[in-house]
């Protein structure tokens, strides 16, 4: 059966896109989800302490604002519940096919259709939208002996809730955004916890607190107050873009917060010195926590900075010859982020494979359209990640752009639209030129980069500038093929 739109993924991007399509009168939409529930990263990451580092008033769709968050920074369970609420309220839950993993998508140029292969069969789509996200494929570190450990081990995004942690010797590998939430929680019950740090992160205090019942009631009954709160937080976070992308010296205020957070949380000067990063602030993701540093001072917690040599059946051996026995190993080592649509095989016009097109790094005009792959649209694609604000704002900009393209296909009776290669190349050159002056190019290695060290994830500017750039598709940017019998308007 041929569908108007097929969406791959049911996180914020997939569910939001399906809702917007339905509101635009496009009912023939299918959402393919490989898991047995929706939610994307908020479904997968259920580790202790999992929460968002963007304030809750920014972490909801503009068309479905949530006023009853329990905390200033929303916990994982509430975010997931919110997505289920949106899917039900806007009638798109029955459009999701769970347990349906896409293995290949191939464009049939003659039929002007995407033929999408899944483990359960094939379906066709006039328009294909990838909403896979950037944080969906857990990455284990390339350490010798990872598979030899005799105890319990798992990635933080595949948390083993059946694992017994109380009274155990636990090793946590990694010091990123997940680790700083996990460590304070599991240190409370571990007999011993060793945190293996390859690179110290910048951590600033997290101004989190519970919302009082009366505050929730006021926000619900006086919508303008919620709007003002949302606008204030957006403006505050948006102002940080200047430090990330234009004037790195403006990061000084955040650096001061980091120093204060570290000094207050870690009295021991030797431990404090080991927690000072050796790169410019902002080059890697800035983390927020008020209990991470105090957790590292607990008598049952040890920070290990010697490089890991190998994993052994009984624990971890470091390069200084020390053996660190463990009953449980938690790999808080992040995700493979530069493949975007991997491991799917995506084939466009003339049999051109996306992996080949992206051999030197992922490219997409505005992070949405890829030359040679007609009627394919990416959400949260290359150059659309942020270091300073809510990704939902970026997604909603992309929804509008994709809807404009879908409307053009219908209104002008087009078989397909395909972004011109020169337009995509010009956009990529602009991104790379602008990224050179950003803090992300300050010499560190981060998940914002691909294997060759090229930053391909982040948007080097203000989010409102991205919204302006995506306000509507420019017909001059595309090659088109008109449907047989269609006339120009």
Automatic annotation (TrEMBL):
Transmembrane segments: none
Gene3D superfamilies the record matches: FAD/NAD(P)-binding domain (3.50.50.60)
InterPro entries: FAD-bind_Monooxygenase_sf, FAD/NAD-bd_sf
EC number: 1.14.13.-
Alphabetized GO MF terms: monooxygenase activity
Pfam families xrefs: Pyr_redox_3 (PF13738)
Sections of the chain in a coiled coil: none
Keywords tagged on the record: Monooxygenase, Oxidoreductase
Designated name of the protein: Flavin-containing monooxygenase
Organism: Actinomadura fibrosa
């Amino acid at each position: 059966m041929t569908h108007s739109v097929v969406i791959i993924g049911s996180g914020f991007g997939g569910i939001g896109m399906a809702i917007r399509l339905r509101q635009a009168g496009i009912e023939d939409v299918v959402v393919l989800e490989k898991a047995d529930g929706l939610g994307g990263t908020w479904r997968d990451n259920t580790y202790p302490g999992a929460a968002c580092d963007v304030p809750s008033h920014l972490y909801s769709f503009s068309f479905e604002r949530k006023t009853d968050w329990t905390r200033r920074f929303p916990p994982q369970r509430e975010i997931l519940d919110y997505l289920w609420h949106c899917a039900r309220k806007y009638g798109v839950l029955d459009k999701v096919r769970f347990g349906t993993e896409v293995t290949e998508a191939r464009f049939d140029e003659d039929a002007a259709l995407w033929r999408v292969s899944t483990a359960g069969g094939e379906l066709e789509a006039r328009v294909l939208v990838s909403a896979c996200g950037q944080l969906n494929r857990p990455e284990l570190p390339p350490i010798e002996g990872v598979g030899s450990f005799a105890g319990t081990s798992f990635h933080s995004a595949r948390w083993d809730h059946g694992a017994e942690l109380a009274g155990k010797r636990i090793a946590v590998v990694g010091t990123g955004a997940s680790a700083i939430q996990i460590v304070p929680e599991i240190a409370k019950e571990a007999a011993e916890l060793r945190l293996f740090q390859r690179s110290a992160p910048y951590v600033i205090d997290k101004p989190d607190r519970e919302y009082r019942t009366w505050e929730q009631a006021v926000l619900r009954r006086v919508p303008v107050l919620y709007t003002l709160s949302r606008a204030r937080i957006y403006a505050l976070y948006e102002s940080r873009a200047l430090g990330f992308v234009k004037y790195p010296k403006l990061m000084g205020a955040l650096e001061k917060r980091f120093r204060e957070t570290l000094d207050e949380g870690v009295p021991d000067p030797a431990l404090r010195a080991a927690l000072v990063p050796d790169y410019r602030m902002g080059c890697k993701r800035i983390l927020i926590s008020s209990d991470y540093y105090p957790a590292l001072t607990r008598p049952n917690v040890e920070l290990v900075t010697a490089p890991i040599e190998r994993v052994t059946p009984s624990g971890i051996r470091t390069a200084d010859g020390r053996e660190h026995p463990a009953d449980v190993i938690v790999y808080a080592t992040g995700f493979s982020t530069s493949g975007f649509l991997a491991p799917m095989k995506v084939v466009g016009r003339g049999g051109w494979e996306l992996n080949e097109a992206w051999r030197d790094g992922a490219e997409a005009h505005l992070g949405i359209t890829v030359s040679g792959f007609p009627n394919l649209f990416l959400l949260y694609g290359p150059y659309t990640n942020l270091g300073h604000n809510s990704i939902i704002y970026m997604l909603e900009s992309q929804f509008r752009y994709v809807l404009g393209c879908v409307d053009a296909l219908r209104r002008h009776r087009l078989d397909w639209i395909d972004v011109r290669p020169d337009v995509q190349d010009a956009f990529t050159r602009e991104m790379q030129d602008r990224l050179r002056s950003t803090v992300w190019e300050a010499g560190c290695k981060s998940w914002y980069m691909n294997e060759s060290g090229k930053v391909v994830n982040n948007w080097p500017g203000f989010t409102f500038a991205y919204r302006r750039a995506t306000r509507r598709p420019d017909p001059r940017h595309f090659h088109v093929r008109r449907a047989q019998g269609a006339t120009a308007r």
